[in-house]
């Protein structure tokens, strides 16, 4: 069996006395889209942030292409993480720059020295127009500032910025939260297109079941800092796992509700 | 027993908090400075900060210096008039403006204007994940956001203080000639004979230190802000207050260093 693109072993993180991740083991094979579901505060975001290097885990290993990121040298860490593109929940566009400059920034920042000279700002802005079209926006949107865009358009621009550097790995943090169902489906469609076109490995965290099934081919459920279930995304609605069933069907009664009432 | 110990414990906690904060600030400054010698350097951010601090602060700094120079002339005329040493007014104006009022007033104005803006901008970037987004785009946020601003602060403020020096003396000149009836040439001669290179130089050195401190406090509080709009507001207040206090503290220390012997 080939080395998984991302392999996580025994990953733990606590903030003070609150344990957020409690010995996570997770493999994401190259080219798969993994969807991680779980309630608010179950540690989904923290897991992504640990892989991205935004949060330092307390214990465990994170391997990308079989190499432990956490013990690698600083330069090597940056190299390994350079292949990750991230779409934040609120898009996190730079509001001091125009839309085109945001995408051009992503393009230039992720540029590999081995891929020839870095494109000039003017050239990068030109390329940004093409990338905007890939996410279904007109190139003229590039002239606007992020604050002039609706939530759905911001997400699309965020996606454009994330894919500008043609990353091998893509992370999505609740890509459809705060969008209407149709716009949610549009964003999911774009995500699937981009992941397929780039041949990327993806991890998406969400609690939108429709979105989870559209984006993912694999799925896992995080609960109290532990992965309680892993399987195919198509099995999400009838997994046979009591916790997953309760979560995906949104039932008040079940193992999760009982825990909360204790 | 607790009634006795509690205030002491609280004092200890406050002191430890202060020490911790000072240490964190020093580490923050050192990390930012270390990026000066590690490429790349973000020239675009540096130049826009330089223009923001140096050019757009000109009106407030100019007006402040102009009136401060005028007030010094007026006050010393009223105060010293009875001793018949009116000729000393030009000297008093040039000395106080170049040594103290130029750097301190320009510093305080820039702290209010630029320190607050930096803190609010970087703080908003922090609470809206833009700083994390920089990291995910393979860009070190300290190198991109903080280092260019610190350098811009340290370089722009001496320029502003030079302008404040000139306009402060001009303010004193205008009041003395137009209101107090001094001869223009006499005032200029008296100014030139009291003008010392060391005073101006030390004023500019102070300005560079102040500019660095203002940018440092603005960036530090913005960078570490937490908790949405309220956190950003608190960070902005803290940045301006801390910068103003540190500025006056360093003003005393630098004055002591250069002029006490």
Number of domains of chain A: 2
The DSSP helix count of chain B reads 9
Give the termini separation of chain A.
43 Å
Side-by-side strand order of the widest sheet of chain A: 6-7-8-3-9-10
Shape of chain A: globular
Amino-to-carboxy terminus distance of chain B: 50 Å
Name the quaternary structure: heterodimer
Give the SSE string of chain A.
EEEHEEHEHHHEHEHEEHH
CATH fold call of the largest domain in chain A = Rossmann fold
Approximately how much beta-strand content do the residues of chain A carry? 15-25%
Mean pLDDT of chain B: 91
Query: What would CATH call the architecture of the largest domain in chain A?
Result: 3-Layer(aba) Sandwich
> Given the helix and strand composition of chain A, which structural class is it?
alpha/beta
Q: Mean pLDDT score of chain A, rounded?
A: 86
CATH superfamily membership of the largest domain in chain A? P-loop containing nucleotide triphosphate hydrolases
Function (chain B): Could be part of an ABC transporter complex.
Transmembrane segments (chain B): 14-33, 45-68, 88-111, 150-178, 198-220, 232-254
Subcellular location (chain B): Cell inner membrane; Membrane
Family (chain B): Belongs to the MlaE permease family.
């Amino acid at each position: 069996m080939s080395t998984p693109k991302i392999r996580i072993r025994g990953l733990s993180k606590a903030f003070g006395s609150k344990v957020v991740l409690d010995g996570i083991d997770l493999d994401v094979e190259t080219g798969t889209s993994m969807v991680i579901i779980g309630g608010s505060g179950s540690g989904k975001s923290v897991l992504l942030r640990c892989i991205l290097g935004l949060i330092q885990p307390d214990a465990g290993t994170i391997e990308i292409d079989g190499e432990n990121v956490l013990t690698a040298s600083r330069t090597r860490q940056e190299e390994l993480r350079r292949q990750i593109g991230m779409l934040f929940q609120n898009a996190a566009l730079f509001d001091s720059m125009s839309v085109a400059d945001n995408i051009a920034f992503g393009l230039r920042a992720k540029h590999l020295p081995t891929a020839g000279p870095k494109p000039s700002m003017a050239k990068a802005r030109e390329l940004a127009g093409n990338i905007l079209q890939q996410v279904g926006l007109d190139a003229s949107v590039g002239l606007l500032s992020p604050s002039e865009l609706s939530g759905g358009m911001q997400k699309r621009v965020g996606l454009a910025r994330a894919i500008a550097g043609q990353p091998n790995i893509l992370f999505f943090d609740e890509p459809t939260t705060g969008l209407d169902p149709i716009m949610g489906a549009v964003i999911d469609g774009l995500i699937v297109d981009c992941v397929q076109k780039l041949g990327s490995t993806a991890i998406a965290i969400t609690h939108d079941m429709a979105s989870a099934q559209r984006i993912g081919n694999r799925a896992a459920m995080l609960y109290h800092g532990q992965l309680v279930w892993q399987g195919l995304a198509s099995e999400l609605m009838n997994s046979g796992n009591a916790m997953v069933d309760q979560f995906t069907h949104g039932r008040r009664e079940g193992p999760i509700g009982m825990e909360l009432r204790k | 027993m607790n009634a006795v110990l509690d205030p002491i414990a609280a004092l200890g906690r406050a002191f430890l908090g202060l020490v911790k904060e000072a240490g964190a600030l020093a580490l923050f400054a050192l990390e930012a400075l270390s990026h000066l010698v590690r490429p790349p350097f973000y020239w675009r951010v540096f130049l826009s900060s330089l223009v923001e601090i140096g050019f757009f602060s000109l009106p407030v700094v100019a007006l402040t210096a102009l009136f401060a120079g005028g007030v010094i002339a007026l006050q010393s005329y009223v105060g010293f008039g009875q001793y018949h040493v009116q000729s000393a007014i030009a000297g008093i104006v040039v000395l106080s403006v170049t040594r103290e009022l130029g750097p301190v007033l320009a510093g305080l104005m820039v702290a209010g204007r630029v320190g607050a803006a930096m803190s609010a901008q970087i703080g908003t970037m922090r609470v809206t994940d833009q700083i994390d987004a920089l990291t995910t785009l393979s860009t070190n946020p300290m190198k991109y956001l903080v280092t260019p601003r610190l350098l811009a602060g340290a370089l722009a403020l001496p320029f502003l203080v030079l302008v404040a020096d000139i306009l402060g003396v001009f303010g004193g000149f205008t009041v003395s000639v137009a209101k107090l009836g001094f001869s223009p040439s006499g005032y200029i001669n008296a100014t030139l004979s009291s003008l010392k290179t060391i005073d101006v130089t030390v004023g500019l050195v102070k300005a560079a230190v102040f500019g660095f401190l203002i940018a440092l406090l603005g960036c530090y509080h913005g960078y570490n802000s937490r908790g949405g709009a309220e956190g950003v507001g608190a960070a902005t207040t803290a940045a301006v207050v801390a910068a103003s206090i540190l500025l006056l503290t360093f003003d005393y220390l630098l004055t002591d260093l250069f002029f006490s012997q």
